[in-house]
UniProtKB/TrEMBL annotation:
<feature type="active site" description="Proton donor">
    <location>
        <position position="98"/>
    </location>
</feature>
<dbReference type="GO" id="GO:0102264">
    <property type="term" value="F:tRNA-dihydrouridine20 synthase activity"/>
</dbReference>
<comment type="similarity">
    <text>Belongs to the Dus family. DusA subfamily.</text>
</comment>
<comment type="similarity">
    <text>Belongs to the dus family.</text>
</comment>
<feature type="site" description="Interacts with tRNA">
    <location>
        <position position="95"/>
    </location>
</feature>
<dbReference type="GO" id="GO:0102266">
    <property type="term" value="F:tRNA-dihydrouridine20a synthase activity"/>
</dbReference>
<keyword id="KW-0288">FMN</keyword>
<feature type="site" description="Interacts with tRNA">
    <location>
        <position position="184"/>
    </location>
</feature>
<dbReference type="GO" id="GO:0010181">
    <property type="term" value="F:FMN binding"/>
</dbReference>
<dbReference type="InterPro" id="IPR018517">
    <property type="entry name" value="tRNA_hU_synthase_CS"/>
</dbReference>
<keyword id="KW-0547">Nucleotide-binding</keyword>
<feature type="binding site">
    <location>
        <position position="137"/>
    </location>
    <ligand>
        <name>FMN</name>
    </ligand>
</feature>
<feature type="site" description="Interacts with tRNA; defines subfamily-specific binding signature">
    <location>
        <position position="298"/>
    </location>
</feature>
<feature type="binding site">
    <location>
        <begin position="231"/>
        <end position="232"/>
    </location>
    <ligand>
        <name>FMN</name>
    </ligand>
</feature>
<keyword id="KW-0820">tRNA-binding</keyword>
<feature type="binding site">
    <location>
        <begin position="209"/>
        <end position="211"/>
    </location>
    <ligand>
        <name>FMN</name>
    </ligand>
</feature>
<feature type="binding site">
    <location>
        <position position="68"/>
    </location>
    <ligand>
        <name>FMN</name>
    </ligand>
</feature>
Length: 328
């Protein structure tokens, strides 16, 4: 069977817990055709002992889409990678970057940077189990480790298992004393470390992550590395992605419009609301930033977060909010 032809990972949206669920990913896909989308981190336990469909279901429009896994047992990760492949995901990514104490108690996430041999074993087990790409997302170091050589040696050791794509959050992870939010803000960004990784491993695909907020910043990073992963800015200001296809992929297709995005969401909302327990608020919370920085942005956010308006609502609330935006 021939391998699916996919866009490059030149641009991607970071896996973000509680944010990059299937509803957000479908919304993001209406803005950009080529950008890679990543699931929230899903633990191996959740897949092996929980509701697989709840964690892995997605819309076909989301491709290219990657599943991020959290775990540290090679056999369990291999079984979950196989599930990802069976469900049609285009990539499986191992989380070696999350610093939360809850994740550390499970012995995975950023604390795994201290065990590159184990990460290598995990990657090998997953690669042996599947034909889709297996990638690793990690930090540049942990705690007080400041030397570039730490992340260089980590990448070198993990690459022995056949991994050639590394997504690097350009900050250390402080395992004790900082919250996950503080870990995204307090440790200094060291983009030059990621640039050096690309120079030291020219044949590997190196993606940079952390603190990226503008398309000009993306362009600057792409002079040094293969791809840029954007996190919270792509969530709070999603229209940032509207230029990505043309500017970074050379895609001459029809550019996105906010009206077209809303129109595409209406049948999706109708389908989702037919599912047991579904409510519009589950989808609406992800699209509050559609008009970020535009006239009417406040009324859009207010209407789509108003519990009274959302109760029992369907897609017509989006149309009413859009009309209000147009009048403001």
């Amino acid at each position: 069977m021939s391998k699916k032809v996919l866009p490059s990972r030149r641009l991607s949206v970071a896996p973000m817990l509680d944010w990059t669920d299937r509803h957000y990913r479908y919304f993001a896909r209406q803005i950009t055709r080529n950008t890679w989308l990543y699931t929230e981190m899903v633990t191996t336990g959740a897949l092996l002992y929980g509701d697989v469909a709840r964690h892995l279901r997605y819309d076909e429009a989301e491709h290219p889409v990657a599943l991020q896994l959290g775990g540290s047992e090679p056999d369990e990760l291999a079984r979950c990678a196989k599930l990802a492949e069976q469900w049609g995901y285009d990539e499986v990514n191992l989380n070696v970057g999350c610093p939360s104490e809850r994740v550390q108690k499970g012995a995975f996430g950023a604390c795994l940077m201290a065990e590159p041999a184990l990460v290598s074993d995990c990657v090998k087990a997953m690669r042996d189990a599947v034909g889709i790409d297996v990638t690793v997302k990690h930090r540049i170091g942990i705690d007080a480790v400041e030397e570039y050589g730490y992340v260089r040696d980590f990448v070198g050791r993990v690459s022995e298992a056949g991994c050639t794509t590394f997504i690097v959050h350009a900050r250390n992870a402080i395992l004790k004393g900082l919250s996950p939010k503080e870990n995204r803000e307090i440790p200094p960004l060291k983009y030059d470390y990621v640039y050096r990784l690309k120079r030291d491993f020219p044949d590997f695909e190196i993606l940079i992550n952390g603190g990226v907020k503008t398309n000009d910043e993306i362009a600057t990073h792409l002079e040094h590395v293969d791809g840029v992963m954007v996190g919270r800015e792509a969530y709070h200001n999603p229209w940032l992605m509207a230029d990505w296809d043309a500017r970074f992929y050379g895609d001459a297709g029809e550019p996105a419009s906010r009206d077209a995005v809303i129109a595409a969401l209406l049948p999706y909302i109708e389908q989702r609301l037919a599912e047991p327990g579904a409510q519009l608020r589950h989808i609406a919370r992800h699209i509050l930033g559609l008009y970020q920085g535009q006239p009417g942005a406040r009324v859009w956010r207010r209407m789509l977060s108003d519990s009274t308006l959302l109760k029992g609502a369907d897609g017509s609330l989006l149309l009413a909010a859009r009309d209000r935006v147009a009048r403001d």
